[in-house]
UniProtKB/TrEMBL annotation:
<protein>
    <recommendedName>
        <fullName>Oxygen sensor histidine kinase NreB</fullName>
        <ecNumber>2.7.13.3</ecNumber>
    </recommendedName>
</protein>
<dbReference type="GO" id="GO:0016020">
    <property type="term" value="C:membrane"/>
</dbReference>
<dbReference type="InterPro" id="IPR003594">
    <property type="entry name" value="HATPase_dom"/>
</dbReference>
<feature type="domain" description="Histidine kinase/HSP90-like ATPase">
    <location>
        <begin position="304"/>
        <end position="395"/>
    </location>
</feature>
<feature type="transmembrane region" description="Helical">
    <location>
        <begin position="75"/>
        <end position="93"/>
    </location>
</feature>
<feature type="transmembrane region" description="Helical">
    <location>
        <begin position="139"/>
        <end position="158"/>
    </location>
</feature>
<dbReference type="InterPro" id="IPR004358">
    <property type="entry name" value="Sig_transdc_His_kin-like_C"/>
</dbReference>
<dbReference type="InterPro" id="IPR036890">
    <property type="entry name" value="HATPase_C_sf"/>
</dbReference>
<dbReference type="GO" id="GO:0046983">
    <property type="term" value="F:protein dimerization activity"/>
</dbReference>
<keyword id="KW-0411">Iron-sulfur</keyword>
<dbReference type="InterPro" id="IPR011712">
    <property type="entry name" value="Sig_transdc_His_kin_sub3_dim/P"/>
</dbReference>
<dbReference type="GO" id="GO:0000155">
    <property type="term" value="F:phosphorelay sensor kinase activity"/>
</dbReference>
<keyword id="KW-0808">Transferase</keyword>
<dbReference type="Pfam" id="PF07730">
    <property type="entry name" value="HisKA_3"/>
</dbReference>
<keyword id="KW-0004">4Fe-4S</keyword>
<keyword id="KW-0902">Two-component regulatory system</keyword>
<keyword id="KW-0963">Cytoplasm</keyword>
Length: 397
C-alpha cells in the first residue's frame, strides 16, 4: 500500500469515527421533534427540551470536544455513560418519544467504553426502555434479551474490523519505514560503490602513468645525462635519437592508457614477442647484456593477464636501469600448466627487500593481486635481485 493510499484509509477511518460521535444528535433531534408534535403542556415540554439540551452538551463535552478521552480515560467514560443513561432514562420517563434515542446508547457503549466495559454498557443500554410509561416489563425484557446480544455481536464485529484496520496500518507503517531505510542504505551503498570505483580508477591511472610515462621519462633523462657526460669528441646524435624515440613511445603509451586500451607492444604481437622486444629495447638503451628465454608452449591468455606480465617486465627492467648497476640481466617467460610466470634476474648491487618502498613495487603487487597471482622479490645487498611474477592463465578471480 502506498503512502497516499494509507493516508486515504486513515482519513476514511477518521470520517467514520466522526459520524459515530455525531449520529446521536440526529436521533436526539428527531426525538425532540416528535415530542413537540405530541406536546401536552408547554411547561412540561420546555423542561424536557432543557434536559435534552443538557444531554447534548454532556455528549459534546465528553466525546466530541475530547475524542482522546475515549481511549485514555476509562473512568471518565464510565461516568459519561452512566450520565448518558440517566439523562436518557429521565427523557423517556417524561416523553415516550425519546425511545427513538435509546438505540444510540448501544452505539455509544462501543464508541466510548474500552474492552469488555463496552459489553456491560450494551447490557445497560436498554434500561431506559423499562421505564417507558405503561410498558410491559416482561415483554420488554424478552425483547432486550434478543436485541442486546445482537447489538453486542454487531459491536464485536465492528471492533474486530477496527483492530484489523489498525493492525494493517501498523504493518504498513513498519513496511514504509523499512522501505525508507532500504532506500537510504541503497543510496549509501551506491555512494560507496561510486567512491570505490573512483579510487580504483585513480589507482589504475596511477599505475598506467607509472608504467608508461614515468618509465619513458626516466629513460629520456638517462640518455640526456649520458649525452652530457660525453666528451666533445664523442658523437651525441645516437643518445639524442634514443631519447627522442623514448619520448615518442612514452607519448603513445600515455594516449593508449588514457583511452584504456591494451599497451602498444601487445596490440599486434604476442606476449612473448612483446616481452622480448622490451628486453631488447632496454638492452639498447642501457648497453647491459640482456638475454630473453621462453619456456613452455605459448598459449592465448586474457588481455589483463598479458598486460600485467608486460608491465611487470617493464617495471623490473626500469628499476634495474635506475638502481642495480648490473652487468647482466636474464628475462624468462614460462608457460606452465595453469600458470604464466615471469622471472627477471640481475647481478647488480641488490637491496634490502624489507626496507624497500616505492610506488612501482606497490602498483605491481596490486596488479598481480587483482589476478589472484603472486609477486615475490629476492634480493640482498651485493647479491643481485630476482623478481618472480606468477598469474593464473585463467584471468581474474
Amino acid at each position: 500500500m502506498t503512502l497516499v493510499e494509507e493516508q486515504r484509509v486513515v482519513q476514511h477511518q477518521r470520517t467514520w469515527d466522526r459520524i459515530w460521535t455525531l449520529a446521536p444528535y440526529g436521533l436526539l433531534g428527531v426525538a425532540c421533534a416528535v415530542s413537540l408534535l405530541n406536546a401536552t403542556g408547554w411547561q412540561h415540554q420546555s423542561v424536557t427540551l432543557v434536559i435534552a439540551a443538557g444531554l447534548g452538551l454532556w455528549h459534546w463535552w465528553f466525546v466530541v470536544a475530547h475524542p482522546d478521552w475515549c481511549e485514555r480515560r476509562t473512568w471518565l467514560m464510565a461516568l459519561y455513560f452512566l450520565g448518558l443513561l440517566a439523562l436518557t432514562t429521565l427523557l423517556v420517563m417524561r416523553s415516550s418519544s425519546f425511545q427513538l434515542f435509546v438505540p444510540a446508547c448501544y452505539v455509544l457503549a462501543f464508541v466510548t467504553l474500552p474492552g469488555w466495559y463496552a459489553y456491560a454498557g450494551a447490557v445497560l443500554a436498554g434500561a431506559p426502555w423499562l421505564v417507558v410509561p405503561e410498558t410491559n416489563v416482561p415483554l420488554t425484557l424478552l425483547n432486550l434479551a434478543t436485541v442486546t446480544p445482537l447489538a453486542a455481536l454487531i459491536g464485536w464485529a465492528i471492533r474486530a474490523m477496527e483492530r484489523e484496520a489498525d493492525r494493517r496500518h501498523e504493518v504498513n507503517t513498519r513496511l514504509a519505514a523499512a522501505l525508507a531505510e532500504n532506500a537510504r542504505l541503497h543510496e549509501v551503498l551506491v555512494e560507496r560503490a561510486k567512491a570505490a570505483a573512483a579510487a580504483e580508477e585513480r589507482a589504475r591511472l596511477a599505475r598506467e602513468i607509472h608504467d608508461t610515462a614515468a618509465q619513458g621519462l626516466t629513460g629520456i633523462v638517462t640518455q640526456l645525462e649520458a649525452a652530457e657526460e660525453l666528451s666533445p669528441a664523442e658523437p651525441v646524435r645516437d643518445r639524442l635519437g634514443k631519447a627522442r624515440q623514448l619520448a615518442r613511445t612514452s607519448l603513445t603509451e600515455v594516449r593508449r592508457s588514457i583511452e584504456a586500451l591494451r599497451p602498444g607492444p601487445l596490440e599486434n604481437t604476442r606476449l612473448a614477442e612483446a616481452v622480448s622486444n622490451t628486453a631488447t629495447a632496454w638492452h639498447e638503451q642501457h648497453g647491459v647484456p640482456t638475454e630473453f628465454t621462453l619456456t613452455g608452449t605459448p598459449r592465448p591468455a586474457p588481455a589483463e593477464t598479458e598486460v600485467v606480465v608486460l608491465r611487470a617486465a617493464q617495471e623490473a627492467l626500469s628499476n634495474i636501469g635506475k638502481h642495480a648497476r648490473a652487468g647482466r640481466v636474464d628475462v624468462t617467460l614460462s608457460y606452465m600448466d595453469d600458470l604464466l610466470v615471469l622471472d627477471v634476474r640481475d647481478d647488480g648491487t641488490g637491496f634490502d627487500v624489507n626496507a624497500a618502498s616505492g610506488f612501482g613495487l606497490t602498483a605491481l603487487r596490486e596488479r598481480v593481486g587483482q589476478l589472484a597471482g603472486s609477486a615475490e622479490i629476492e634480493s640482498a645487498p651485493g647479491a643481485g635481485t630476482a623478481l618472480s611474477v606468477a598469474v593464473p592463465l585463467g584471468g581474474t578471480r
